[in-house]
Design a protein that fits this description.
The complex is a heterodimer of chains A (430) and B (432).
Chain A lengths: L3 E5 L5 E6 L5 E8 L13 H8 L11 H8 L3 E6 L4 E8 L4 H12 L5 H19 L2 H13 L13 H6 L2 H11 L5 E7 L3 H12 L22 E7 L5 E7 L7 H13 L18 H7 L4 E6 L9 E8 L5 H17 L4 H18 L3 H14 L2 H5 L1 H6 L3 H11 L5 E8 L8
Parallel strand pairs in A: 2-6, 7-11
Antiparallel strand pairs in A: 1-2, 3-5, 3-6, 4-5, 8-10, 8-11, 9-10
Helix pairs in contact in A: 1-7, 3-8, 9-12, 9-16, 10-11, 11-16
Chain B lengths: L18 E4 L5 E6 L5 E8 L13 H8 L9 H10 L3 E6 L4 E8 L3 H13 L5 H19 L2 H13 L13 H6 L2 H11 L6 E6 L3 H12 L23 E6 L6 E9 L7 H12 L1 H14 L3 E10 L4 E9 L4 H17 L4 H13 L1 H4 L3 H13 L6 H10 L3 H11 L6 E6 L6
Parallel strand pairs in B: 2-6, 7-11
Antiparallel strand pairs in B: 1-2, 3-5, 3-6, 4-5, 8-10, 8-11, 9-10
The chains are: A alpha+beta (430), B alpha+beta (432).
């Protein structure tokens, strides 16, 4: 990966560059180490709301100016707030990208947070949350996270609790913004059609003069292990029962993460690393699909390990067959997990998981936005090397590793079992 | 970008770098190489869509498509997916109104496998009885989930009211009672009557020599014949709504309502399409969801999303505004959207707005075509709507020639603020 370089400017800004000359495009990202992980009870949802306010303008670039400029040039831009990070990106024709850099440098410090705009955005965000509340799995997820963590901020959804969304004021948002939006808390990643030397000089000129801030010491309470299985049940409209079983998982930087990834692929199917394009591979030959869907206990099953800074969750989500129960599906899930704990996984199954990962990796590399995404995402929880060596690390995983992961992590006392039960009486069902 | 500065668009797919071959049995193959890529994308369709469904068996085309991979004369369901998943490849089928579509992806070395599975599933599916039943349960579960999805239900209701007695107004996935009534014999018979090589299109894009791709298709599908393949049906005429038509689907226990409102739009081949498409961009897409996003989200904070879409098909289309709003804001949102539609048909868009959208349409071509999937999707559309292999090269000039008068004219032709279809799905609060 000689075409990737990493530089740290004097003000603490970390820059990652990757030249790719397959299309006349450049994708530029800025990542801040701020997300729900850094929030305090009573003020949940601050990071996500700040992200919304970042589209509301600065004295130099009023709201709408950049929407217009970027759209005019045929670019694409967006932002995401997650547990551990907030990221903004612009993908544009190569000769236009400098605009995006000026924009991001400007709104790192100069956003207005106009009080009227804050109020107008409050209802937009509540509307966003209410849209999610319409989904049974959002409500189940929220209940599971709350049960899985007693202290760690991962217990809250990124969007924040509704009561906090009513409570938060303009100054809370502005203070959060001024504290965490600083070059020494940010990573800039750029991938695409440029010359590294010129790009670096340009970035240095645009971002180099921003002042670092004194970041507060991050004190996040570590979460003690669960000591027994926890159960949550919620009910709501509909006819469909959902079972989601969430195990406490390792952090992405933990060496176990790779073996866990292979285990997940064998158990619930290959997971794609690609946020933009690439598509996925189906999971119909995975152990859980065979054990649950082929036997008509469920109509679908999927799992997914997430790469996070602190240990988060490994959820397995099962949509129960209309004529079956969550309890029946759970006992089969337990049987499959015991099999992983007690029996050695055939080497061929491991090799298959690795080939799948290699293919998914190849699909994602076509897309420049995806490439720049990975430059930053991996850096947040480990380093870009994590991504570069991803397939090689998977290749090292052994049968013993898989068994050890199953025995260590997939224990009933490490999990929350969540069930969504529909309230529509059977007789009224279609 | 100057609107006349099209030089950098020379790298777009065009006639001299896209291979197009019609096989003797009627299959059209399009192929384009991208030697930077270690993988290939395969897309295509047959003309066996839900337009052939009866009202009683709505969902039959979709059911048939979804059952193709459940077993063939050579392989069982598990063998099919074992072959695919073992090499990290994917393949899937689905039905829309006009077409049964397929899409797949594999590393270059696995393209022969992908084509072999495609050919088997298309030409010799066996529809094993136990899998038909298993699929039925899965479809019914999906329909039960759909019945709880406010966005899906608003959209379904909108189509039903806008296109009465027309395949465009009927759900491709069917309804619980129609899915219950479909038998294995229905699937077999649908497959025999409607699956065939005539009018079929396959697109292959990726790290492979186009001629090699064509030869591989010829090997796997060149001998396919179906003398019983039915002719394309005549679809009923489409008429605009004669008055305001409003419907609210009550779904209990929902925090938010989804709203879809609008009317007819042009078909894809119509000369109205490009002016309507640019107008649609101004009305509800450009920047942060255009004029409607600006009023509903940015100014009044009523919704997280409020945007427009133009859906153009073979014999007609729809022009829709969608938004997700709390029920207390519903009437205000409808009022604001109606006001914007009225303005849109009363006065021409400004020169500035027009140039913004023109520039955006031309400028976004490289981004939309950067990946194999993007190119394959574009080539498939060129073929489906008979636009010609030089379309992407002509496109910038065609976009630049659209005027604000042309947009006003098509807006008036399709949108009438006194005669809209308004569909809402969500919890109806009887206290209000």
């Amino acid at each position: 990966m000689s075409n990737v370089i990493k530089v740290e400017l004097e003000n603490g800004l970390v820059i990652h560059l990757k030249e790719i000359h397959t299309a006349p495009l450049i994708s530029h990202w800025i990542w801040y180490r701020i997300g729900s992980r850094y929030e305090k009870p009573g003020k949940t949802g601050l990071s996500h709301w700040v992200e919304h306010m970042q589209f509301k303008g600065t004295p130099q670039y009023p709201a709408g100016f950049l929407d217009r400029a970027i759209s005019r040039d045929g670019g694409m831009w967006n932002a995401f707030t997650y547990l551990d990070w907030t990221a903004y990106f612009e993908t544009m024709p190569a000769d236009k990208i400098v605009l995006a850099m000026h924009l991001e440098a400007d709104r790192m410090v100069n956003s207005l947070f106009d009080p009227q705009e804050v109020e107008s955005e409050r209802t937009v965000i509540i509307s966003e949350r209410e849209g999610s509340e319409n989904e049974p799995l959002f409500r189940l997820d929220e209940a599971i996270q709350m049960a899985a963590f007693d202290r760690h901020p991962y217990r809250y959804e990124v969007v924040g609790l509704k009561e906090d969304l009513y409570r938060i004021q303009r100054d809370d948002l502005y203070q959060h913004y001024r504290t965490y939006y600083a070059p020494n808390n940010a990573i800039v990643t750029v991938a695409g059609d440029f010359q590294t030397k010129e790009m670096l000089a340009q970035l240095r000129e645009i971002y180099g003069n921003l002042k670092p801030s004194s970041l507060p010491e991050v004190h996040i309470e570590s979460e003690p292990p669960l000591s027994e299985e926890r159960n949550v049940e919620i009910s709501g409209p509909g006819e469909t029962t959902y079972l989601r079983v969430a195990y406490r998982a390792p952090a992405a930087s933990d060496i176990d993460f790779f073996a866990f990834t292979v285990l997940d692929s064998i158990l619930s199917g290959p997971a794609s690393l690609n946020m933009f394009g690439g598509g996925g591979v189906s999971n119909k030959t995975s152990r859980l699909y065979r054990a649950l869907v082929e036997t008509e206990l469920a109509v679908s099953v999927y799992g997914g390990l997430q790469a996070t800074v602190d240990p988060f969750l490994y959820p397995i989500t099962i949509t129960i067959h209309p004529r079956q129960t969550a309890e029946a599906a759970l006992s089969v899930l337990d049987r499959e997990i015991q099999r992983l704990q007690q029996e050695t996984v055939p080497e061929a199954e491991i090799q298959r998981a690795i080939k799948q990962a290699r293919a998914l990796f190849a699909y994602g590399s076509e897309n420049i936005t995806n490439q720049a995404f990975w430059l930053g995402y991996a850096e947040i929880f480990a380093s870009y090397d994590w991504f570069v060596h991803y397939v090689q690390e998977l290749e090292k995983v052994t049968q013993t590793d898989i068994q050890r992961i199953a025995q260590t992590y997939l224990q009933p006392f490490r999990r929350v079992v969540g069930i969504y039960r529909p309230t529509t009486p059977l007789g009224d069902r279609q | 970008m100057k609107l006349t500065d099209f030089a950098h668009l020379k790298s777009l797919p065009g006639p001299e770098d896209t291979t197009r071959v019609v096989l003797p049995n009627g299959i059209t193959v399009l192929a384009r190489a991208n030697y930077d890529s270690p993988s290939v994308v395969l897309n295509g369709y047959l003309t066996s869509g839900s337009m052939y469904d009866s009202d009683e068996k709505a969902g039959l085309a979709h059911f048939t498509a979804s059952a193709l991979m459940r077993g063939t004369q050579k392989r069982s369901f598990q063998q099919i997916f074992d072959a695919l998943e073992s090499v990290g490849a994917s393949l899937g089928f689905g039905a829309s109104v006009h077409n049964t579509s397929f899409g797949g992806r594999a590393l270059v070395e696995d393209l022969p496998l992908l084509l072999e599975l495609l050919a088997e599933c298309l030409t010799e599916p066996v529809f094993p009885p136990e899998y038909v039943e298993r699929l039925r349960a899965q479809h019914l579960a999906a329909l039960a989930i759909r019945a709880q999805d406010t966005a899906d239900m608003a959209s379904l209701t909108f189509d039903r009211i806008l296109f009465p007695d027309h395949p465009y107004g009927r759900s491709e996935e069917g309804y619980p009672e129609t899915i219950q009534s479909i038998t294995r014999e229905d699937l077999l018979s649908f497959h025999q009557k409607h699956y065939g090589p005539r009018n079929m299109v396959i697109v292959i894009v990726g790290g492979i020599e186009p001629q090699v791709a064509v030869t591989q298709v010829q090997e796997k599908l060149g001998n396919w014949q179906n003398p019983n393949q039915a002719a394309l049906p005549e679809l009923p005429a489409i008429h605009p709504p004669e008055k305001m038509l409003r419907n609210h689907v009550h779904i209990p226990g929902k925090s938010q309502c989804d709203l879809v409102m609008g009317s007819l739009g042009p078909c894809r081949n119509s000369e109205d399409y490009l002016p309507a498409s640019l107008g649609n961009n101004i009305l509800g897409q450009f920047g942060m969801m255009g004029r409607i996003g600006n009023v509903v989200r940015e100014q009044e904070g009523l919704a997280y999303y409020a945007s427009t879409s133009l859906n153009a098909w073979i014999v007609g289309g729809s022009w829709e505004v969608s938004a997700g709003v709390n029920q207390t804001n519903l009437e205000r949102a409808i009022e604001l959207i109606t006001k914007e539609i009225r303005r849109f048909i009363t006065e021409p868009v400004s020169q500035e707005e027009l140039e913004d959208s023109q520039s955006s349409f031309i400028g976004r071509l490289p981004l939309s075509l950067e990946s194999n999937a993007g190119v394959a999707g574009a080539l498939l559309n060129l073929e489906r709507f008979g636009l010609g292999l030089d379309y992407l090269r002509r496109y910038p000039k065609m976009v630049a020639e659209v005027t604000s008068e042309m947009i006003l004219e098509v807006a008036r032709r399709y949108l009438d603020p006194e005669r809209l279809v308004i569909a809402i799905a969500g919890t109806l609060n009887t206290a209000n």
